[in-house]
Amino acid sequence: MTVINIRYISIEGNTRSFMQHLIDYAKEQHAKNPTRPLIVTKEVSEQTDFTDETDPYFAFVPTYLDGGNGIDNGVKELMTNVLGEYIAYHDNRKHCLGVIGSGNRNFNEQYCLTAKRYAENYGFPFLADYELRGTSRDITRIYDLMADKIKVTH
């Protein structure tokens, strides 16, 4: 059975909530059609023991910045650095199929900036975005995108 592996960080619970909706949606899709993949997640935090990834996965990261506008006067990442460290650990970046970002559109150019920077720094694509806790359309869109990308890698 094909699964979609996800590594994520959740600071205020928005990403965790999105993951739960994504898992539930995947279970519904799999129940209707057993060829549709289920989702396996791992939340990365300061308490996480880093492991070597051996299977393809997707990274989900929100944007939290402290200072600068992220464009022309610098940027300081806030609170999500441990996911970047996990991705950089040994060969983990090589197994990442892409990053999905979340944020608040009120922050304009800073919206999903962390995910875009991960894509640039680690050499994998920025695949999608959603705002805050996402919508049911975001769940469907992102699940389908990941399911299609997993098919290509198998």
From TrEMBL:
Coiled-coil boundaries: none
SUPFAM superfamilies: Flavoproteins
Source organism superkingdom: Bacteria
GO molecular function: FMN binding
Protein name (record): NrdI family protein
Organism expressing this protein natively: Furfurilactobacillus siliginis
